[in-house]
């Protein structure tokens, strides 16, 4: 079958042009992770079991990626009761202590592994596949020997690594969508990929009440829906949006309602009135240490997120540049969450998700009441099922 043949191609085909990972040692502190995140153009930093901060002779250690960290991990960590009283001390915690436990979110994969194998790992819960970087010369591939500094992830043989995300895999499949015709024109309802077990919070409820849901949404690569009393979708608290905020967003989560938090993290730039409201509530709750952290961060960069005035014409796609010139981009959607309907086709939902850099798309009735969502994992289940489908015989 053409589909089976296509899915058996090497996963290294997806890695062409991917940059080498910049590592962070698992022994590093959360504060060091923040510094690297602020310098990076990426929302996540890979965490490794070996220390790349020192020059290590080839062959002395076995380096392995054990996870990844982003601003969402830091925000959720600071929101915990035991950390809100002394955030400075909490930031000195080892990053290994805040990585998700018991979840194979990051997994190594050989470059000659099949695309089908990569999809299987994703369906088991993997978010990022760590793969050796290869150069392609004259139609042949060879391992790339590292000539860079300690900022490159190197194995014993000096090979660097990149990683593939769920989004990378879905985008690759979309580029060859004709291979999978005609099923991609089927509705998401007929394909049974609408997940109705979604996490929601009412608009006027405290955002802090959704902390556990937000942590779970971060692991499952979805979002928390903000709804009104009639279950009509108003917006979403998205980990992909929080990933481009700074650590002071923890104060907003702890003090604001879900509706106000939507405005606070919208495109990463909080309105001044909400900043002042957060400060007032922090004072009332006697969280002076968190207030000091907020004042310090705001005075350094006026937030490490993008402001409304710094957003360009790319806003149509929900993309903004930070006003501190760091080059990081926000995938925050400035208006409403990305939505579709049960009769939307699979390919249409794929295009929506990829265009807006959204790992999930909300599914609604005509009256805007929420039905559920479609995730990248749900989409990949369809393509995985095609590998097992038998041709029709007459």
Automatic annotation (TrEMBL):
Gene3D superfamilies: CBS-domain (3.10.580.10). The keyword Repeat applies. Keywords: CBS domain, Repeat. The keyword Repeat applies. Pfam families: CBS. Residues 336-383 form the CBS domain. This is CBS domain-containing protein. It comes from Solanum tuberosum (Potato).
């Amino acid at each position: 079958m053409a589909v089976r043949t296509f899915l058996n191609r090497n996963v290294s085909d997806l890695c062409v042009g991917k940059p080498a990972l910049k590592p962070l040692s698992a022994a590093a502190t959360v504060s060091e992770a923040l510094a690297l995140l602020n310098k990076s153009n990426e929302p996540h930093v890979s965490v490794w079991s070996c220390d790349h901060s020192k020059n290590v002779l080839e062959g002395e250690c076995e380096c392995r990626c054990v996870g990844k960290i982003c601003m969402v991990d830091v925000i959720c960590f600071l929101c915990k009761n035991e950390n809100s009283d002394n955030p400075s001390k909490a930031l000195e915690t080892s990053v290994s202590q805040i990585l998700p436990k018991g979840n194979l979110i990051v997994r190594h994969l050989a470059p000659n592994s099949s695309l089908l194998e990569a999809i299987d790992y994703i369906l088991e819960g993997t978010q990022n596949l760590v793969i050796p970087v290869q150069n392609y010369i004259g139609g042949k591939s060879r391992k790339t020997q590292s000539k860079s500094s300690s900022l490159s992830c190197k194995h014993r043989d000096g090979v660097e690594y990149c990683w593939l995300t769920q989004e990378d895999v879905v985008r690759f499949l979309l580029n060859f969508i004709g291979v999978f015709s005609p099923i991609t024109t089927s509705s998401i309802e007929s394909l049974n990929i609408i997940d109705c077990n979604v996490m929601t919070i009412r608009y006027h409820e405290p955002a802090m009440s959704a902390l556990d849901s937000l942590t779970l949404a971060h692991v499952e690569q979805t979002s928390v829906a903000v709804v009104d009393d009639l279950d009509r979708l108003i917006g979403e608290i998205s980990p992909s949006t929080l990933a481009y905020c700074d650590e002071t967003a923890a104060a907003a989560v702890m003090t604001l309602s879900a509706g106000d938090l939507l405005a606070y993290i919208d495109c990463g730039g909080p309105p001044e009135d909400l900043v002042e409201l957060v400060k007032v509530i922090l004072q009332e709750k006697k969280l002076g240490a968190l207030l000091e952290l907020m004042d310090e961060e705001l005075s350094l960069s006026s937030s490490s997120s993008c402001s409304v005035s710094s957003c360009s014409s790319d806003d149509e796609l929900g993309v903004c540049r930070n006003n501190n010139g760091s080059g990081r981009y926000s995938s925050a959607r400035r208006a409403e969450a990305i939505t579709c309907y049960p009769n939307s086709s699979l390919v249409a939902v794929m295009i929506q998700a990829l265009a807006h850099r959204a790992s999930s798309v909300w599914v609604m009735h005509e009256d805007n009441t929420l039905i559920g969502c479609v995730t990248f994992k749900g989409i990949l289940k369809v393509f995985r099922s095609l590998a097992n489908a038998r041709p029709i015989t007459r």
